[in-house]
Design brief:
Elements: H1 4-9, H2 13-44, H3 51-104, E1 107-109, E2 115-117, H4 125-129, H5 131-167, H6 185-198, H7 205-218, H8 222-232, H9 234-245, H10 255-276, H11 286-298, E3 302-303, E4 314-315, H12 316-324, H13 331-346, H14 355-359, H15 375-385, H16 387-394, E5 397-400, E6 403-406, H17 407-414, H18 421-424, H19 432-445, H20 461-476, H21 490-499, H22 501-509, H23 526-536, H24 540-564, H25 569-597, H26 603-612, H27 615-629, H28 638-655, H29 667-691, H30 699-727
Antiparallel strand pairs: 1-2, 3-4, 5-6
Length: 730
Amino acid sequence: MVSIPYLDKADLGPLADAAASWKALPAKYDALQREFEQRVINHLKGHWEGDAADSAFVTMGKARTEYENAATEAERIAKLLLDAHGEFTASQKQLHALLDEARNDHYKVYDDGRVEDVDPRQDSPTASASPGLAEERKKKLDSLVSRLTRVLEVATAADEAASSALERDANGDSQSFNTSVYTTLDSVEADQAAALMNKKGRLSDAEITKLNLLLSANKNDPEFSRDFAVKTGGENMLSKYNELMSPPAGTTLSKAQLAQLKELKANLGTTIGTATTSDDGGQPDKDITKFQNDLLKAGQRDFNANPTESPYGLSGYQLTSSLMSEGKWDKDFLQDYGDALITAEKNGANAGQNPDAYWGYPRTLGTTNIGALDPMAGFMDALGHNPDASTEFLTSDATIDGEKVDHLDYLLKDRHWPEGAAYTGDSGNPSGYNNLGHALESATSGRSFDDDGAEPVKHSAERAALMKEVVDTVGGDPSLASDSPRDALRDSLGNMTAEYMADVQGAIANEQGTIKPFGADANLDMGTLEPFIATVGRDPDAYVAITEASQANTAIWMQHVADANPSDLSAGMENVAYPGGVVAGILSDSRDQAIFEEHSASDKDFNDAVATGDKWAGRGLGMAVGAATGTAAPIVGTIAGWAVEDIQAMVVEQVQQDTTDEAKREAASKYAEGWNAAGESSASSVREAIAHSERQMSQKDLDVLAGSVEQAAKSGHTAGTAWNSSVNGR
């Protein structure tokens, strides 16, 4: 690996000079060729005849060809050196920027790549007084280390590729000019990576390290990824991946070796995904089309990593889905792949009702346990990372044996999802419903399900319609998200509810029309919306996401009402407060059901969820601002100055409870706490909204307004809890 001091101090001037010199050579060789022809060949023509002359002219013709070859090779070497100079210069600039960033943020970067936090605040009372400081500093440190590693990987891959290319003699004859020298580092690195994937037999640790380096440095590069995929081939790609992830029986891998293979899975999956998109926006690439078709065909066969040890290995679908859970993949290919996968299941064991048997024994994961036996889990995560593909797939159907199969119905209602880490590839979430939730989040939001930093995307009509269908389906049959393993859907459904909070509150507000959606209106129906929220809200993460988004939405629309200066300010604010109260009421009752009746969660689960779920205060504000202003721009102006912090504080206060001993708390006191919290949060929001508007109001009038808004929120809370209790027969 190229070291930090080497890249930091490297003088790239001589390399630029060498590239310029080589770039000038073709013209010089061309001039020499013309002079040779004029002064030698043309001069002798017509003046020399016979056998000796014929032999000499043949030799001189070869010399002319050598001039041409020399010019061609010089031109290609010039391009290679220019490419190398560009790569090294870019890497060096990135390194300098990272080192500057580290110094400015009080991090020390050592020559061996270690990064240490030397912020003086860490040893001061400030750190203990700010619980979030340590976590914030740790995130910055991890980010710096990751980006430094990335820069060094790219520089190292470029350095090794340039060295290999310059040493190469494709003709195998040092006396002859090389007419097929590389001109780009991408082509060198693609050849090197493909050679490793095409090698017979298992790769050594050093070779896996080399392959990881090449893929990590180039996994998002369309040109490299395309060449690598085409030179490796779809079927061979899966075969080698299966072999690497399934070492022979009795093989003991160290933690470092296992980490290396997990990294390879991520790098290889991202690289192949990039390859499938390498012709997007241009003419279809026949070689990439063939590669994709080969992957589809290979899905139907089994790969045995160690033929003498049967059963051992996975099907092509299982291998492809394992890789597919990483990176961005071509939308059309994902549609074809999903249809092929559902067709295989429908034609398999019990028409999709027994995928455990269809995808399980005699197929087994290797000793690395990398991958998943249920290929649908990996495919769902692929959709979760590819929003356009997930929206299209979950709003379409397939025709199998003349019968139309609705994708969403099959996945949400008809399919039996196998449980267990071996089937999902995730010991933390061993339910395939969790993966299905990722696809649903992506499809309805327009963002990758795990991209917390992505800005909100305005809801399209297609995505809003899908959200309505999900709400109507689950709200019409709450058992689809109740009880294990289906309850693994709830956290994703909670995020989706938070995503569409303006639509939720708008549906509750009904005829008022004050609260507007962020993009297309999902037109949610209260008949299914309330049971949907009641079911989903029993999950602690969903509860916090919905609560934060609801309070954020209420705060922004109160600010909007204050800035709009309506003739009846009190009525306008009450119309905004009431829907938030209804949501809070439904959630309060759902929480109690989860703790005391369903026994699926505890107070601690709900309290702990606050720490991880606070993203929805900021994200909810962003969407509410977008809906209010008609733009998807980030939060701007005075709203951001108070809303996020205050909303998170209100949520913490509202959620933090200790009701583990049911006998300690009566229903009346539990109800009163939630009722008061709903009113107080709305009253607090309206006071902030007025304070940050241009409206002048006396303290007395502000108190009256806050009181009316508080009562509206409490009325909504009462309505929400009353409805939820009546539905559940309590």
